[in-house]
Amino acid sequence: MSDQHSRILAGMRRGIDQTQAKEHGMPFGTSHPSGVPTGYAQFRTDLGLIEYYDGTRWLTTHEYTAALNDYVFGVAAGAAYAGGVPQSFGRALTRTDYTLYITRFVLYATASVLQTAINNWRISFQSNFGATTNAQYNTNGQAAGVLTLTEIAVGSITQNGAASSETRFLVDVKNGAPGTLTLEAAMYYRLIIP
Fold this sequence. Notes:
Number of strands: 12
Number of helices: 1
Radius of gyration: 23 Å
Helix content: 10-25%
CATH class of the largest domain: Mainly Beta
Structural class: mainly beta
Number of domains: 2
Largest sheet: 4 strands, mixed
Distance between the termini: 33 Å
Shape: elongated
CATH architecture of the largest domain: Sandwich
CATH topology of the largest domain: Jelly Rolls
């Protein structure tokens, strides 16, 4: 390629980068700049993502969602499970090309009977095939037949996004006979940009 063609292509690339930066109203580049303050954001022209520095790592500004589907659990009167024996679990399908930075779980739950200190369900959110419990929710105090929305902030959980790992929730009976539980859950996360 001639020097003239190289100069033309380089100029076109600069023009495209400048246009993208103007559209996003921020700096741009193909790598992480050093010595930037917490909260610094830029558009990654090589990835097509807006990223920011949280003081420790580079994260996408966009927050992704992974659904944990709809499940119904129930136990007979007087039945009890001890030691966290799982009834079932739901798996969150996520991207596998980046490490995840999990920020929160949202849980929608409806119980068929009043949940008390002696009759309740426990939901555990776990990552890496159950090796780590990230957060737990107990239905104690939840009214019968009322849809309850619970947001569980977890903040700084990182997880390998590879297919060999997963995020899931386990449901077990903490105490007594808590009736039937219907729930949906979602996991929110950002991508860690290497």
